[in-house]
Amino acid sequence: MSGFPQKFYHAVFWPIRILMGFAHPIVHVRGLENIPDGPAVICCNHSSFSDAIWVIVCSHQKRIFRTMAKKELFSHRVLGWFITKLGAFPVDREANDIHAVKTALGVLREGDKLLIFPEGTRVREGDVSHPHVGAVTFACRTDAPIVPVFLTRKKRFWAPLTLVFGEAYHPQFEGRRPSSDELEHLTQEMMDKCYALGGMQCPSA
């Protein structure tokens, strides 16, 4: 298992959950049984800054999900420190970030779970989803299953939230590694699965 320290996660789990409960007292969580014991790529739609925290605290896992997050979040000293303690690591979305790729692959190869928001940015109603192929690439290179996840897009104050973990699956492709066309297709398939859990169609171009 990964050597990432877990003590901070366990220390702040309930305080964070209680604080977030003031904004959304009711959270309907379904499909926890679909989270496998071993490594997995947890892929969720993305509509707000709090998405990662909701997925992490509502998953009730003994080990925290490691989260790939945009590097801009780490530029603020306090926020950067906090999310790093909660398992996040930065990725430069504008470049071929080899270090982030190696970290992501290492997380999965060490037996932990990797949380990714493939859309890369918040997609609200009326926006178009442009998912990146990284999540599928990591899954294919490590033979880790993908767990599609849907989280309520509109997070109105005090309104109930729904978080659904779908069935884990392995992307199917020809050959030793998927081609670029296959990666695009598999990525769209993955996002379709995420949104379908919420009874929605993926807002693709």
UniProtKB/TrEMBL annotation:
<protein>
    <submittedName>
        <fullName>Lysophospholipid acyltransferase family protein</fullName>
    </submittedName>
</protein>
<keyword id="KW-0808">Transferase</keyword>
<keyword id="KW-0012">Acyltransferase</keyword>
<dbReference type="GO" id="GO:0016746">
    <property type="term" value="F:acyltransferase activity"/>
</dbReference>
<feature type="domain" description="Phospholipid/glycerol acyltransferase">
    <location>
        <begin position="40"/>
        <end position="154"/>
    </location>
</feature>
<dbReference type="InterPro" id="IPR002123">
    <property type="entry name" value="Plipid/glycerol_acylTrfase"/>
</dbReference>
<dbReference type="Pfam" id="PF01553">
    <property type="entry name" value="Acyltransferase"/>
</dbReference>
